[in-house]
Amino acid sequence: MYNFRTDLALERRDLYKKANNIEKEVDGIETTEEKIGEDITVSKVKILNENGENAIGKKKGNYITIDIKNLKIASEDEIQKASEVVTKELKDIINNLVSPEDPILIVGLGNLYVTPDALGPRVVQDIDITRHILEYMPNVLEQGTRSVSAVSPGVLGTTGIETLEILKGIVDNIKPKLIIVIDALASRSIARISSTIQIADTGIVPGAGVGNARKELTINTLGIPVIAMGVPTCVEAATIAADSLDLFIQKVQEEAQSNDFLNKLQDEDKYEMIKEVLAPQDYNFIVTPKEIDELIENMSSVVARGINFAIQK
Amino acid sequence: MYNFRTDLALERRDLYKKANNIEKEVDGIETTEEKIGEDITVSKVKILNENGENAIGKKKGNYITIDIKNLKIASEDEIQKASEVVTKELKDIINNLVSPEDPILIVGLGNLYVTPDALGPRVVQDIDITRHILEYMPNVLEQGTRSVSAVSPGVLGTTGIETLEILKGIVDNIKPKLIIVIDALASRSIARISSTIQIADTGIVPGAGVGNARKELTINTLGIPVIAMGVPTCVEAATIAADSLDLFIQKVQEEAQSNDFLNKLQDEDKYEMIKEVLAPQDYNFIVTPKEIDELIENMSSVVARGINFAIQK
Amino acid sequence: MYNFRTDLALERRDLYKKANNIEKEVDGIETTEEKIGEDITVSKVKILNENGENAIGKKKGNYITIDIKNLKIASEDEIQKASEVVTKELKDIINNLVSPEDPILIVGLGNLYVTPDALGPRVVQDIDITRHILEYMPNVLEQGTRSVSAVSPGVLGTTGIETLEILKGIVDNIKPKLIIVIDALASRSIARISSTIQIADTGIVPGAGVGNARKELTINTLGIPVIAMGVPTCVEAATIAADSLDLFIQKVQEEAQSNDFLNKLQDEDKYEMIKEVLAPQDYNFIVTPKEIDELIENMSSVVARGINFAIQK
Amino acid sequence: MYNFRTDLALERRDLYKKANNIEKEVDGIETTEEKIGEDITVSKVKILNENGENAIGKKKGNYITIDIKNLKIASEDEIQKASEVVTKELKDIINNLVSPEDPILIVGLGNLYVTPDALGPRVVQDIDITRHILEYMPNVLEQGTRSVSAVSPGVLGTTGIETLEILKGIVDNIKPKLIIVIDALASRSIARISSTIQIADTGIVPGAGVGNARKELTINTLGIPVIAMGVPTCVEAATIAADSLDLFIQKVQEEAQSNDFLNKLQDEDKYEMIKEVLAPQDYNFIVTPKEIDELIENMSSVVARGINFAIQK
């Protein structure tokens, strides 16, 4: 399959359309877009069948993308407004999957000590937990409060344990009816870094379509539905460079200065070649705004509030 | 049972002896002490039978206390030396319980976002994890490397889940043969704050002897042996005040200025009365050095290095 | 002078009245109190003359104390409401001292790396700075925007330089007309920890009344008026213990079980005796809530917003 | 002047040689290189005259570059070894400029809250300060201890004050004889991120050669010699993309598939074109390793220890 180098269904569908010169919609995919005020756009990608799945390498289901402009300099009011959009979309998905009092487990993926990967654990920190209160002091809560618990299981590199292995045990012991997973994603566009939230009702399938299904966090592996909330926090450095090359060759062609060699190159993926040049060492080079610390803080607030209001009545 | 207000077996044994005017050793308890250089003292309390258990409310087993002077201003060398003492004592206990290649799970209890409670998660951050490397790239490790994994399960207040519920699931899934739990403790003595490590081969029994056994982290609940490494990081404010009152009445008596009323008070526990006075609100007031951030940092290094060298050959 | 062990004028005045059995107001001091809603109390202590100064060891001037209940669990709304009270009181004081466009320098005292001392630097982080924008891009700001700059000069122990030496140079170079200093204070009452703000128009006089005037941060040393905003973040451990002893002796007396010896003790200050017992090492033991990290975060928001709205129209 | 997009004299000299097809050394520049063990290389660039200055846009003086391999996974020993190389080179430069007991001021530039910019403030945190001890308790220090003080003045965006304005005042008040400034730099090579230290005896000249001399931190503006220690912590995203394009065109040429248009492009700087494409918003996009937090931590240790041993006998 094509290496999309993005986890966003919306970007994949755009890349697929461009690569295959498709003018209308891809067969098996439905898309809608809605603007909310000046700064927020909600796009919905629905993958309807296997054809849609194969086209963009994502499971059948719903993928909602919320783009928020200028989150870096967002005021308290704007953070609140953005979180309300998250609440609305998330609530619809939750209500489709479980009943109002069914217990939910929130899972913050990622490494707290690596800033662009810290979003999941930071969100968990701000979730309103009720499970232990319902157990030990139920009277202090309103009738009908949903049981909510949350964990940050860490990453394989620092725990030595697959996330699935940790979650399976917890699910067996505390028996939630739904899991909401928060994770940092890769995107193709630097404009989307910490400015976009994707909500999917299909769970998380790392290396989707490439096999390796054993480690996916989905209803198949965990036995209960999994909602995935993902936020792009970085772009691979090699992606930036490869995209620049594409733009460059395109420009050469437009000015009618191209030749057979360049035209052929245009159809190849320069990513692998560039990756080799860029990464002579074993680092994981990413492109990220210098202000990533602050962006992650604002985005964590949006996501945590969005969840807190969506999970209780 | 007497409210010792300390988790250290050594302090409990001293308090018990004093309260009961015991000159020699308590029946059912054995104690030894060794000085290592200028700054380190290793004390071992062995609880031999039920009498010892009842006396100080701790399970039958071994409790090793390592006191380190001046850790606040410790140089790199002194941190290294202290960690070597931890390694030596911990290694003996591990070798008594499991074979050299048996897998070990390290568990950092506590809340990373509350400084005096952050020791466990900070230590986990510095543990050398091997389990995933043994699984995916075994050739890069030396023959005979032990499988080591680690988690920081969070605290009930922020996860809504009992630590035992989380650990049980993980143990079922990854099947370690031994657990080492790191936790922050309460002590009676401010001199011991972040300067003492207690290593126990009995696991962790919160509210020991008071019932509530369901939540203990021991071989009884987890099915495998549990080593507990605890570091005092605070003293309850009410403990400080109550201890001051004791000293005061003692001084009055020494100067032969006491009276029946005071003498009677001396035998009571003033802790509850003081607690009420001190804590008009629902805070958890503690006495801690202003420099607690730095002390926790140094102590985390001592404990993490101590473990890293004890668990591999 | 009496060792008040508190930097709050309000607490000192209460202690002075009690110690001297004064029923009405202290000569040279005026006090008013106002409740704002359920959770906020504003008390104003005005020191009118030298008699007032000598009584409580504070300079002639205005000391406003804002007490906020339950700040630990404050919602976004409550933080906002508290900050508005700060804005109102601070604005009055600023308008008494300078004109609306006179430049202001904000100074965050304290050590960022020691949680109970980090309030000043954290507030500075959230101040809306305009001085450089007025200089380089004045058009992006509204007409009449005041020039605001801010520094966190660090503490003597980590810089080797007196705060006054650093500030003097900055004042000489950038010529503000007013300084607002934010600092963490000691208090007598644990209920006030990170729940009270004192605003004083007299600057900061460390060791007030004890001499050592060289290092005070006031109009005398800096040549421009200095507003001091102080927040209690800890109580000395010895203070807690000494206060407990006082309560204890009082109780003994009430029950008519006292004797001459105790009665005499009652009049002494037990603080020095206790300090010796408590502090066998060179730590600085303090009483602080375990939740200090979160409290400081909330209080920083209150103070920073309070300032931001007070300094611009 | 050519836009080098690097602050390292060594990289500039290499770029200049390449751009001008110079085989030997640039006129007015001298270079030496020395390998120390497996992992460390020390290169020295000496700019001898105006010709050298003009060639690479750096002031006459000495620029020492220390490259350290594999710092990310450095053990305690390797950090120590690297710091010893820093000590040796720094000591030589210091001894050329001042006498053994002349007071030194250490200045950590940068923003503590933006990880790739936090190196300066983090180093300052670990410097051994003596100035206040020499003043208040000289007897606890060895005879001949040098007076050392340190500040982190913050950045213009968060203080509203030029660094020079802050430092001038401090220099006037405490009168050091030498300043050592630590700063994060931009580099051309991702392999150098947090792996290289440049020590220069010429101070810091932002926008060197472009005018704007007013804000330089040098003997000209501060009146005393300034040593600059710089560590690359990021590469501009546009630099990565432009360099990739260069490599690409070079490859096309090598394969004899180029044409006049491409050949002409090769001589232009594609940086500005790419910058526009990359940065549609007002972020400051950088390329940095995901592991930057840990790299900065290790590099801070190397620099701080390097300084601590260089400044005292």
Task: Describe, in plain words, how this protein is organized in 3D.
Four copies of one chain form a homotetramer. With 313 residues, the first copy, chain A, is α/β, with parallel strands linked by helices. The first copy, chain A, has a single domain, classed as HybD-like (Rossmann fold). Chain A has twelve helices and nine strands. In chain A, strands 1, 2, 3, 4, 5, 6, 7, 8 and 9 form a nine-stranded mixed sheet that branches. The longest helix of chain A is centred in the first third of the chain and has 22 residues, at 76-97. Chain A is elongated, with a radius of gyration of 20 Å. Chain A starts with 8 loop residues before the first helix and ends with a helix. Residues 207-213 of chain A have low confidence and may be disordered. At the A-B interface, α5, β5, α6 and α7 of A face α5, β5, α6 and α7 of B. β9 of chain B pairs antiparallel with β9 of chain C.
**What is the count of distinct domains of chain A?**
1
SSE run of chain A: HEEHEHEHHEHHEEHEHHHEH
Strand content of chain A: 15-25%
- The radius of gyration of chain A is 20 Å
Q: For the record, what CATH class of chain A applies? A: Alpha Beta
Helical stretch count of chain A?
A: 12
Based on the structure given, which CATH architecture of chain A is correct? 3-Layer(aba) Sandwich
The major beta sheet of chain A can be summarized as: 9 strands, mixed
The strand count of chain A comes to 9
Q: Find the CATH superfamily of chain A.
A: HybD-like
- Could you give the distance between the termini of chain A? 42 Å
Which overall shape of chain A is indicated by the principal axes computed on the Cα atoms? elongated
Mean pLDDT level of chain A:
86
Structural class of chain A: alpha/beta
Instruction: Indicate the low-confidence ranges of chain A by residue numbers.
Output: 207-213
Biggest interface, chains and residues, is:
A-D, 43 and 43 residues
